[in-house]
Design goal:
- This protein is of the alpha+beta class.
- It is built from ten helices and twelve strands.
- A four-stranded mixed beta sheet has the order 2-6-5-12, with no helix packed on it. It has a four-stranded antiparallel beta sheet with strand order 8-9-10-11. A two-stranded parallel sheet has the order 1-7.
- Strand 10 and strand 11 form a beta hairpin.
- GO terms for molecular function: nucleic acid binding; zinc ion binding.
Length: about 375
């Protein structure tokens, strides 16, 4: 479920905390029905953190009490010969107690042996212990195909807070990303190796660029990111940013760090649990981006035609009149902005004449005296 929510967040699909909590409750097994009812109707609003804490406490309480996830079964066994014995023996033996069948007559439906029931079968208990040990090692729940019920319901609650997050690190040497999907441009090949703090060597699969959507909605490209599959976290090195002219600054609240260049704030990080600065942003995965060709003559024709507008160039391109033009996409042209003149239209004149030569031209000024 956590993976689905992360993939939806990459697509800018935000799921409210209450909806995530309801999805988590619906995914719980049937043995948690009473706990689900309690959590659902206890408050008007529910949160994922509250459900996670309640599930962990409930699971820990069951482990301490030594309870199994399946409840104890109640077996009620009647005397099948009661009616026949009462008819044959009459009223003289009504008060006599019927003899229960001995332990040896019971039959186990698991191992097909007599002397015990299925719930007390030693083979079934041995298999349950082996499967429980295997589940703890591999993290998977093993189900017995011979039985009609699962031996135990195992609940795993994971809090992967930094699966898709970027960590601002001052000790690492390179920008690092473990996921191949984070690289829109990928150059495979052996790019060397790095050493971790425990002297463990990790190979660099490739070097590429990663696009990150920042806190303000701006999408920025992080260059020269190393793809290392052995690591689990996305790392941004502050040393490389500082070398390229980006300066980290801490705010007065001591909880936010800003990466600035001049007066521009490029990145922001928020301190989290464990004194880790997490980047306020997410990786942009996928998407179709236009490819700009070097042979596109859009700018050339724009200047030759006297800085023609983009709308008119598209119209000429539809008629196949512009050779070498592919996109008709114009970049910012400062000459168009600085040299543009606005044409002011004149008002329509009103004439009262009805025929030709109805205008009378006269010398309004009259004669003047020379001084």
């Amino acid at each position: 479920m956590q993976r689905i929510i992360i993939d939806l967040a990459r697509l800018d699909v935000n799921i409210e905390d209450e909806v995530r909590a309801m999805i988590l409750l619906c995914l719980l097994p049937f043995s948690y029905e009473h706990l689900v009812s309690t959590l659902r109707y206890r408050k008007e609003t529910i949160k994922v953190d509250e459900i996670t804490a309640a599930l962990l406490a409930h699971n820990q309480r069951k482990q301490n009490a030594g309870e199994s996830s399946h409840g104890d079964s109640l077996y009620v066994k009647g005397n099948q010969d009661f009616g026949r014995n009462s008819e044959k023996e009459g009223s003289g033996k009504r008060n006599s107690r019927s003899k229960s069948r001995g332990r040896k007559t019971t039959h186990c439906y698991k191992c097909k042996e007599s002397g015990h029931m299925k719930r007390d079968c030693p083979k079934l208990k041995k298999q349950a212990d082996e499967k429980r040990d295997g589940s703890c090692k591999s993290g998977d729940m093993v189900q017995n195909d011979d039985s009609n019920f699962s031996n135990c319901d195992m609940l795993f609650v994971s809090t992967n807070q930094y699966v898709d997050a970027w960590i601002l690190d001052s000790r690492c040497s390179y920008h690092i990303a473990p996921n191949r999907e984070s690289f829109p441009s990928y150059r495979p090949g052996n790019s060397g190796s790095i050493y971790l703090g425990d002297d463990r060597c990790c190979n660099i699969a490739s070097v590429g660029d990663v696009r990150i959507k920042m806190y303000d909605g701006t999408v920025r490209t992080l260059s020269d990111v190393r793809h290392i599959q052995d690591l689990k976290k996305n790392l941004i090195t502050l040393g490389t940013l500082h070398k390229n002219g980006f300066i980290p600054k801490a705010d007065e609240d001591r909880e936010t760090i800003r990466i600035v260049k001049g007066a521009l704030t490029v990145m922001k990080g928020k301190i989290t649990t464990g004194n880790i600065y997490k980047l306020l942003g997410s990786t942009v995965v996928g998407g179709v981006h236009p490819i700009d060709s070097c042979d596109d003559n859009t700018k050339f024709w724009h200047m030759c035609l006297g800085h023609l507008s983009e709308r008119l160039m598209i119209e000429l391109h539809k008629r196949n009149l512009l050779h070498g033009v592919k996109s008709c996409k114009l970049d910012f042209c400062k000459f168009c902005v600085l040299g543009k003149k606005t044409k002011v239209s004149f008002t329509t004149g009103k004439h009262k004449t009805e025929g030709i030569l109805h205008y009378v031209h006269s010398d309004v000024w009259g004669s003047t005296k020379e001084q």
